[in-house]
Inverse folding.
C-alpha cells in the first residue's frame, strides 16, 4: 500500500479554522488600512509633483512620516499573511488526510504535494487548484469522489488567487526600479489594486474552507453514529 493511501486518524479542523477565520478578518481590516494609507501617500506624492511644499524641511518630515507609516503597515500585513498562510496550508494538508480517512481512493495528490505545488514555479498556476478540487470532491462523497460536481467557489477562489499573485509580482518588479515621482505613483496605484483584490480573496478563501470543513465534520459525525449503531447491534442478543 502506498504511504499516501494508509489510513490516518481524522483531524478535527474546528479549532484550526477558527484561527484562520480571525486571521482572514484581520487581513481584510489591514487591507482597508493599507488602502487608506496608500491614498494618503498618493496625495503626498501629488503635492510633491505640484510643488505644494514651500519648505524643504516640512516636505522631508512628511515624507519620513509617510515612509514609517507605510513600513509599519507593510510589516504587520506581511506577518499576518505569513501566519494565516501557514495555517491554511496546514488545513489543506489535514483536509487531504481526512479525505483519505473517509475512504477516498486513487487521489492524484498526496497531502504533501497538495501544499508543495504552491512553491513550484509554473505548475503553481494550476496544480494547487487541482489538488483543492480533489479535496472538495472527496469531502462531499469519498466513495465516488471523481464524479462529484465542483462548486463555483473553487473557480472564483482560484481566479482571485492568481490575480492577486500576478498583481503582487507587478508591484514588486515596479517598486525595484521606481525612482521618479510618477513611477512611485504608479507603484502606489498597483499596490492599491493588489489590496482591493486581497479583500474578496480572503472572503472566498473562508467560504471554501468553511464548506470543505463542514462536509468533513458531517462525514465524521455520520461515521461515529454508524459505529455506535454497529456496537449496539453487536451487544443485542440474537432472536
Amino acid at each position: 500500500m502506498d504511504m499516501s493511501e494508509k489510513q490516518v486518524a481524522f483531524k478535527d479542523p474546528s479549532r484550526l479554522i477558527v484561527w484562520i477565520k480571525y486571521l482572514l478578518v484581520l487581513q481584510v481590516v489591514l487591507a482597508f488600512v493599507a488602502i487608506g494609507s496608500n491614498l494618503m501617500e498618493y496625495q503626498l506624492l501629488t503635492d510633491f509633483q505640484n510643488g505644494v511644499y514651500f519648505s524643504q524641511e516640512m516636505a522631508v518630515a512628511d515624507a519620513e512620516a509617510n515612509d514609517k507609516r507605510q513600513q509599519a503597515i507593510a510589516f504587520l500585513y506581511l506577518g499576518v499573511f505569513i501566519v494565516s498562510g501557514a495555517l491554511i496550508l496546514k488545513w489543506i494538508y489535514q483536509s487531504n488526510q481526512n479525505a483519505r480517512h473517509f475512504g477516498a481512493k486513487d487521489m492524484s495528490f498526496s497531502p504533501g504535494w497538495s501544499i508543495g505545488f504552491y512553491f513550484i514555479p509554473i505548475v503553481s498556476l494550476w496544480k494547487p487548484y487541482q489538488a483543492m478540487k480533489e479535496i472538495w470532491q472527496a469531502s462531499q462523497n469519498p466513495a465516488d469522489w471523481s464524479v462529484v460536481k465542483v462548486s463555483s467557489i473553487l473557480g472564483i477562489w482560484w481566479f482571485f488567487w492568481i490575480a492577486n499573485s500576478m498583481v503582487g509580482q507587478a508591484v514588486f518588479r515596479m517598486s525595484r526600479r521606481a525612482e521618479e515621482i510618477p513611477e512611485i505613483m504608479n507603484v502606489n496605484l498597483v499596490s492599491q489594486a493588489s489590496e482591493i483584490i486581497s479583500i474578496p480573496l480572503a472572503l472566498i478563501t473562508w467560504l471554501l474552507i468553511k464548506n470543505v470543513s463542514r462536509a468533513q465534520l458531517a462525514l465524521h459525525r455520520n461515521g461515529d453514529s454508524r459505529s455506535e449503531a454497529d456496537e449496539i447491534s453487536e451487544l443485542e442478543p440474537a432472536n
